[in-house]
Design goal:
The chain is an alpha/beta fold and 348 residues long. The chain is built from 14 helices and 14 strands.
């Protein structure tokens, strides 16, 4: 399987001039559509050329806002935007919550452009007696969010691969030979481990690759490597989603957006050296450019591809993890939650 597609394609879709929706209007360079996504480097890089007006389309004027997922995912789920990126932990819930979003493409994948080294790690101190997942029995693991994809993956992989049951929150360990306790904790979990506040923690996003390389820490579990070992595919952690009714009324606009994003992604990857330096320079609190290049090339990149085959298998596995975690009652219907950016082709 190969997720990455680097060739740029040009948008050729045509659309209707006037569509009576509050988030779509006529502009000088096409129809104005508001899109939201995460402010992480991979999404920033993939959307840079569109946001800066370097790559445009005569068929759509795409306005992209980047923000923390905690700030934009709820409005996206509530219908405030017709298109955006959504974590698969959230996507797992859309059918159960009657949210009319459909995933039309993969987006962030836990596989870099060059290598696949993982994003989510269970870490402890380097001198800890804990060395393997089996050593977690009877222990407490700090996690950032009980409902996240990372926590759901930890719960599922402990059970599937090691036969260990995870309890959450105020529950108590009854069988120390077969259970771990997860505690939801805020802040920098790796630093909490370093300071001795917690013995073990699940660390992800940029902190996962960062601290997994720190000699003060030991990797107990690399969730992405374990996932790949079981399913043979990397984790697809987020998708490009669109409001189902919006796409039905404006299929050409959605096609144009997708082609525009593919061009923008190709531009970002071709110019990653300069753009990583720019991203780092924009905020003094950020890491240096080499760090972000390392993250993108070795740990977490963006891939725009239709959801089929291995990609669908990866996302369905994450859905199953959410079900095992109690986030959803049953698996979503693939025919409901998955679609295509090329609706007219499919319907034809």
């Amino acid at each position: 399987m190969k997720f990455r597609k680097l060739s740029a394609l040009f948008a050729v879709a045509l659309c209707i001039c006037f569509i009576p929706m509050p988030l779509l209007s006529c502009g000088k360079s096409g129809k104005v559509v508001q899109m939201v996504g995460a402010n992480s480097f991979n999404t920033w890089l993939a959307t840079y050329a569109v946001r800066e007006g370097i790559i445009t389309s005569p068929d759509v004027d795409l306005r992209i806002t980047l923000a923390a997922t905690t700030e934009y995912e709820a409005p996206l789920m509530a219908g405030s935007y017709p298109i955006g990126t959504l974590s698969n932990a959230r996507l797992a819930t859309v059918q159960q919550r009657n949210v009319p979003l459909v995933a039309i493409s993969t987006f962030v994948v836990h596989s870099g452009a060059l290598e696949q080294k993982g994003v989510n790690f269970v870490l402890t101190k380097a001198n800890s007696t804990i060395s393997s997942p089996s050593d977690l029995k009877g222990k407490t693991v700090a996690v950032g969010d009980f409902s996240s994809s990372a926590t759901s993956s930890l719960i599922a992989l402990l059970k599937i691969e090691y036969g260990i049951d995870a309890k959450k929150g105020e529950e108590n360990i009854v069988n120390a030979q077969n259970e771990v306790l997860l505690k939801e904790v805020s802040g920098n979990l790796a630093e909490s481990v370093r300071l001795g506040h917690w013995e073990v923690a699940l660390v992800g996003q940029n902190d996962g690759p960062r601290y997994s390389r720190d000699s003060d820490f030991k990797v107990v579990m690399n969730l992405d490597q374990i996932f790949y070992g079981i399913y043979g595919v990397p984790v697809v952690t987020s998708t490009l989603v669109v409001d189902r009714d919006f796409q039905k009324k404006n299929p050409a606009v959605v096609e144009a957006i997708y082609e525009l994003l593919k061009e923008s992604l190709a531009y970002g990857e071709a110019n990653i050296d300069a753009l990583a330096a720019q991203f780092a320079a924009e905020d003094s609190r950020r890491e240096n450019a080499d760090f972000y290049k390392m993250i993108y090339n070795e740990h977490s990149g963006v891939n725009l591809a239709e959801i089929e085959g291995d990609a669908k298998e990866s996302i369905m596995a994450i859905f199953e993890f959410s079900r095992m975690n109690g986030v959803i009652n049953s698996l979503p219907d693939p025919n409901v939650v998955f679609g295509s950016p090329y609706v007219r082709q499919n319907e034809g």
